[in-house]
Amino acid sequence: MVYVIILLLYLAALIFVGKLASRGVSSSDDWAVAGRSLGVWSSAASYFTTVLSAVSFIGYMGYYYQFGWGGWWNWAGTLICTILFAGFFAARLRRFGGVTISDFLDRRFGKAHGAIAAVLILFSTVLFTMAQLVASASIIKVITGIPEYLSVIIVGIVFLAFTVTGGMKSVAWTSVLTSVLILFGAYALMIAILGKTGGFWELHRLAYSEDPALLDPFAGGSIGAGLALSWCVTWGIGNFGLPQLITKFNSCKDEKTARYSQGISGILFVLFYLPLMVIGLGMRILRPGIVQTDTVASIAMVEMVSPLIGGIVLAAILGAAISTAASVLLQAGTTATRDIYQKFINPNAEGERVLAISKGTTLTVGIISIVLSLFNSSTVLMIQSNMVGVLGSMLAMTIIIGFTWKRSNAQGGMAGMLAGILTAVIWYVLKQPFGWMPILPAIFTSTAANILVSLMTPAPPKETVDEFFGKKDRIEEEPEKKFADAAGTGGKTCGQM
After folding, report:
1. Exposure on the CB side of residue 413, measured as CA atoms within 13 A
2. 255 burial class (0-12, 13-18, 19+ CB within 10 angstroms)?
3. pLDDT under 50 in the chain at which residues?
4. pLDDT at 383 (0 to 100)
5. What's the pLDDT score for residue 456?
6. Which residues pair with 252 in a beta bridge?
7. Taking a C-beta distance cutoff of 8 angstroms, is the pair 258, 42 a contact?
8. What is the 3-state secondary structure (H, E, C) of the chain?
9. What 3-state class would DSSP assign to 485?
10. Cα separation, 115 vs 102, whole angstroms
11. According to the model, what pLDDT value does residue 385 have?
12. Cα separation of 241 and 344, whole Å?
């Protein structure tokens, strides 16, 4: 009963905070990118909780249980990506001033590029949302006994409520609440584990006695160089292809905020993953022999801490899932409305109509995700688990090259996108040779295709080069002038080259 009460209080708090944040939403720009008003902390929290998910708690804790400190490679890439964003890309993305990834692809390469990305992104958002719902329902059932179908419906209604009404503003401010809960839950559980193992150094002495490989950065050879590099590349480069992350910078109030928020996000990741690794290592000592490592988190919550702390940790896991789902769902509504409806169906749509359609499409995608989650199959979840690799393979290098190489043109961009996604699909079909994740070979094929085709075809138009590589003040033109809201500019849309 304690678990259920804490969960209900947390869900109610999310709805309350989301409702407060939604009061300032009066236009599609407010809804999609928070009126470009987010500060450092709200932006950092939004990015932090979007990267994390139920998988970060459940799956990674089990991964660290299995490999000990050798498991650190699976978050090294996230840290690399954060450093790259903080040092260069976050500011440029904010300076560009778009709303979606397709906005960038439209203006840098052409409308066909943006359209292809929009369709794949819309498809993937349904799968991503389903994954968070299913993961949330699974752990709630284990801890509380609440049936999975009821958990899916309850959780789905909650994040639909604040995402549809408040858009990015609600997502950002509920993320601040969730970030605090996630860190508190992780450290509360870690302190309990350390208390039972005799402290940090005693834990490591016991771990070394259990298996010296648990303290080896390559897990005694279980994690080879190829797999380690794959982890780094998948999250270090692949995150550039995830729209729910890239578009976070468009909500920041300025370039400095975008850059600084990534610095804060990097610190938050370190503060989260380190205690998670200690928990996994401690559980290996306290409860050796767990075969199904996905159950490590639930066993720790039930057996290692009081119901009060266990309920808070459960709420933290649920919060990670809800924050990710809300960001993905917001991306679905924005993509469907801006990249498909406004650009190809009704370019003259007015502001209030655009806002209404954005909310309507978000609600529709959310309901579809909830319904499909009630009948989820292993095939659907398998496809979802591979979508990060597919999106990253297609979009990551295209975006990076688009911002860093003047000579890349429309033909090269398309070749890079197609080469990347084909490589990913083939790599999955071949069952990931050498243990490499698909994005590792895809970054080479996508980059090579982009460069070779660009060099064999005419250079991009001068106005495109000037916009992205000209004087800073050209690129810093007010976003509302380049990406006008239909309400105030007669319905012009971006992406027309």
Report:
1. 31
2. middle
3. 473-497
4. 57
5. 97
6. 38
7. no
8. CHHHHHHHHHHHHHHHHHHHHHHHCCCHHHHHHHHHCECHHHHHHHHHHHHCCHHHHHHHHHHHHHHHHHHHHHHHHHHHHHHHHHHHHHHHHHHHCCCCHHHHHHHHCCHHHHHHHHHHHHHHHHHHHHHHHHHHHHHHHHHHCCCHHHHHHHHHHHHHHHHHHHHHHHHHHHHHHHHHHHHHHHHHHHHHHHHHHCCHHHHHHHHHHHCHHHHCCCHHHCCCHHHHHHHHHHHHCHHHHCHHHHHHHHHECCHHHHHHHHHHHHHHHHHHHHHHHHHHHHHHHHCCCCCCHHHHHHHHHHHCCCHHHHHHHHHHHHHHHHHHHHHHHHHHHHHHHHHHHHHHHCCCCCHHHHHHHHHHHHHHHHHHHHHHHHCCCHHHHHHHHHHHHHHHHHHHHHHHHHHHCCCCCHHHHHHHHHHHHHHHHHHHHCCCHHHCCCHHHHHHHHHHHHHHHHHHCCCCCHHHHHHHHCCHHHHCCCHHHHCCCHHHHCCCCCCCC
9. coil
10. 7
11. 58
12. 23
Residues for the chain: how many in total?
497
- As a whole number of angstroms, the distance between CA 60 and CA 135 comes to 13
Query: The tokens 């012009």 sit on which residue?
Result: 492
C-alpha distances (whole Å) from 378 to each of 130, 249, 384 are 12, 34, 10
Read off the tokens for 196: 């039972």
SS3 38: strand
Could you tell me if 350 and 488 are in contact, meaning their C-beta atoms sit under 8 angstroms apart?
no
Other residues' Cβ atoms within 10 Å of the Cβ of residue 163: 29
The predicted pLDDT at position 80 comes to: 84
Please answer whether residues 326 and 49 qualify as being in contact, where contact means their C-beta atoms are separated by less than 8 angstroms: no
Closest by alpha carbon to 401, among 440, 452, 460, 450?
Answer: 450
Which pTM was predicted? 0.86
Structure tokens at 58: 């459940």
Half-sphere exposure of 468 (CA within 13 A, CB side): 25
